[in-house]
Design goal:
The chain is mostly helical. The protein contains five helices and two strands, in the order ααβααβα.
């Protein structure tokens, strides 16, 4: 899936350079393919982490935090839900209140993205459900 999405991005980017009349549509397709890449990458990480946890259970591996930019993790997580929110006439934004969130922090990025995915999913569903019940 990752390779197919990557091929879509490359091919559509080449077409964008050749056909100006299709540029808007092609750019939308490129953005969609990039979102597929994000989602597929996230699914790949889940599978890898399940395998990692099985190794942790058998005490063959330990987890240590890595230097991660929390803001980048949040932006990538939100990108996965932008289209769904847009289809339901909702908008998403991220406000940064602390400049420390721009710096690298020693955290495991996957658990952070999982927590953000759950929170974002709940929020998008709550907003969309409230709008359809009106």
């Amino acid at each position: 899936m990752l390779q197919c999405a990557d091929e879509l991005v490359v091919t559509l980017s080449e077409l964008t350079e050749k056909h100006d009349s299709l540029k808007v549509d092609l750019l939308a397709c490129i953005e969609a393919a990039q979102t597929v890449e994000l989602c597929a990458g996230h699914q790949k990480t889940i599978i890898e982490d399940i395998l990692t946890v099985s190794k942790l259970d058998s005490a063959r591996l330990t987890i240590t935090p890595v230097q991660t930019r929390p803001l980048l993790v949040m932006q990538n997580t939100m990108k996965m839900f932008e289209k769904e929110a847009g289809r339901n006439y909702a908008t998403m934004s991220l406000k940064v209140y602390f400049s420390t969130s721009l710096k690298k922090k020693p955290i495991p990025p996957f658990p952070l993205s999982i927590a953000l995915l759950h929170l974002t999913y709940l929020e998008v569903n709550t907003v969309c459900s409230a709008r359809t019940s009106r």
